[in-house]
Amino acid sequence: MFVHKKNKNYFHDKKLLLRIFGSVKTYWLIMCFAIALMICGAATQPALALIMKPLLDNNFSSNYNYKLSIPLILVMLAIIRSICNFLSDYLFALISNNILFNIRTDMYRKLLGSPDLYYLNIDTGKLLNKFTIDANNITNSFADVITTLIRESIIAIALLGVLFYISWLLTLIVIIILPFMFVITRFFIKKIRAISKDILNMNSELTRLVSSSIKGQRVIKLFNGYDIEKERFDFVNKSLKHFSMKAALADSALSPLVHFCIVLTLSIIIAVFLSKPSNMMLTIGDFGVFIAALAQIPDPIRKLTNAFGKLQKVLVSADSVFSLIDAEEEDDSDSIIMNYSAKGNIDFLNVKFKFSENDNPIIDNISFHIKAGEAVALVGRSGSGKTTLINMLSRFIIPDSGKILLDGFDINKMTLKALRANISFVGQDLILFNDTIISNICYGLYNISIKGVEEALKAVNLLDFVNSLPNGLYTKVGEDAVLLSSGQRQRLLIARALVKNSPIIVLDEATSSLDNESERYVQDSLEKLIYGRTTLIVAHRLSTVRKVNRIFVVDSGKIVESGSHNDLLSKKGLYSSFYNIQFGE
């Protein structure tokens, strides 16, 4: 059924607002108290105009005590208003910061539970902005919007009530002008909404660009990429400035236009009153109070129009944040095996997989069996499907068809936690956290003794190095472990796998980035790691797979050869050609 785009946007915005308000439900009691305080504070504004009426009606010859009480009343009203506004603002800040905490918690938990493919497709800059700019916009700006809408609406309604009380006829003029103000406000709100999306996208691009420049600063310097990066940054920076100025223009134009409508209304009312004052049935005091109340209306109206403009930015940010919170999680719904200690028998049965953007399958009907304790290598050209295969074992990637069995059990029937507890991974991406050496080795593990950690470090030839550091095991490795060499990082990862002591080891190009000396140390450590464990190795360096039990040669998503190193060399096939290319034989 066809749905008009405006109606679709309206319902989408309404849904976003309801979700934001849904976050407030937990704090409804605090919210009600804050609103009550705002009402008390807002009620003081029209009172300022009303207390002057008796003075004007009597030409300032009212009761002497009443005249003396006016300054005291003004001070009391100011104190009441200040206290009410302070308390209501504080309570709204309390609510907004609690909501921000909850939203970021939900976002981070969803991020950790997102499928592997989500990380491959997401823009890092946009993802970081969701946690910083967008989440802040929702809570902080939304709190400002709500307090402004409630407080200024109450003030505007109270002032209109005073106007009706004094003269309903003159107030009709105000009401006639209101639709014009609404049309102007709606036009600019739509503009601000569109520009806010452009600003959000450019902020994401700025975050991504700066992050990329920090990581690639050596490449930029070595290849003289200063001008290239400056040009990229200037484009993003200028675009951000352009969109920000457009937003400022729309914001700046809205308030004066609304203010002009109000002044025009005021001018018409004064003209009508002065033309036929006798028909208005108003005293001087009535007219003075009417004008005083009307003169106060521009301020709440201006703040309300600004709030509606800010609300558009909130909705854009809410759309971004909730897109992460609503993202698909790793599916664990059919899992029935909660705990399992695997022996290590692995079966791939007619497994197929194709990335959505590809026409051809990257894994095409592959089947093989690995016995417990057996070491198997996957070799082949880049893009042949090796890494995709090993990622399926941990359920980072789900096959389109076929099954993967662990000790005869379908891995989809195991919870992700139970499955992954049986698998250790050492890859070419040396992921170590900005924490201590011991925390990195024991990451995700509990009840690991210091002795166990030291034994693992000794096994990877790092214990002497760690003991030589000023803080030993409690030395921080720095961001991206910059304080360690590549070989040391790799051996720390192997130590982590040793401490985990899982029955299955997955090695993905574990020595690809190392020099020959470092590779020798790491290879020795790897041999200790894989001893007695089921091991899957992805490698381009064929020197690292000579001793494995079997080698699978993968090409175009299929296993085209299998056997031991010597068997495959004797076949003079694809493996033999790879070997001859690497070793010049």
TrEMBL record:
Catalytic EC class: hydrolase
UniProt cross-references to InterPro entries, sorted A to Z: AAA+_ATPase, ABC1_TM_dom, ABC1_TM_sf, ABC_transporter-like_ATP-bd, ABC_transporter-like_CS, ABC_transpr_lipidA, P-loop_NTPase, Type_1_exporter
Compartments reported by the entry: Cell membrane
ABC transmembrane type-1 domain boundaries: 33-313
Keywords (A to Z) from UniProt: ATP-binding, Cell membrane, Hydrolase, Lipid transport, Membrane, Nucleotide-binding, Translocase, Transmembrane, Transmembrane helix, Transport
Primary localization: membrane
One CC-aspect GO term: plasma membrane
Domain of life: Bacteria
Residue ranges annotated for the ABC transporter domain, each copy included: 346-581
Record-annotated membrane-spanning stretches: 27-52, 72-101, 149-166, 172-189, 248-274
Topology term for the membrane: Multi-pass membrane protein
One annotated GO molecular function: ATP binding
Listed EC numbers: 3.6.3.-
Keyword Transport: yes
SUPFAM superfamilies: ABC transporter transmembrane region, P-loop containing nucleoside triphosphate hydrolases
Entries under NCBIfam families matching the protein: MsbA_lipidA
PANTHER family in the cross-refs: ATP-BINDING CASSETTE SUB-FAMILY B MEMBER 10, MITOCHONDRIAL, ATP-DEPENDENT PERMEASE MDL1, MITOCHONDRIAL
Protein name as annotated: Lipid A export permease/ATP-binding protein MsbA
Native source organism of the sequence: Candidatus Kinetoplastidibacterium crithidiae TCC036E
